[in-house]
Design a protein that fits this description.
The chain has 94 residues and is an alpha/beta fold. It has helices at residues 11-24, 46-49, 62-69; strands at 2-7, 28-34, 38-40, 59-61, 72-82, 87-92.
Length: 94
């Protein structure tokens, strides 16, 4: 099976992983790498600064999104990308 690797667990990375999973419908394994295990909803962060919401209110667990949408989540930190070699070096969190 062919694989696609999405780097980054922000809004763009998560949207890309979801869209690729839906479009390719099982023909590819979609993996998303993020150094944190949650998606932070930045557009709503104004409510955090004025005390109307908490960090938990503005965060969605990436493992939960991965399970719902059918992509794989890997909590790792990207250290180096070697595009010519199609290689991504990461640091895995315990």
């Amino acid at each position: 099976m062919k694989r696609i690797l999405v780097l980054g667990g922000g809004m763009g990375g998560v949207e890309a992983a979801i869209a690729l999973t839906q479009k390719l419908k099982g023909d590819y394994q979609i993996d998303l790498i993020s150094n944190r295990d949650f998606l932070y909803i930045y557009p709503a962060s104004i409510w955090l600064t004025v005390g109307k919401r908490t960090l938990e209110d503005l965060s969605v667990p990436l493992p939960q999104l991965a399970e719902i949408h059918g992509f794989n989540f890997l909590q790792e930190e990207v250290k180096e990308v070697r595009a010519k070699d199609q290689l991504v070096l990461t640091l895995t969190y315990p």
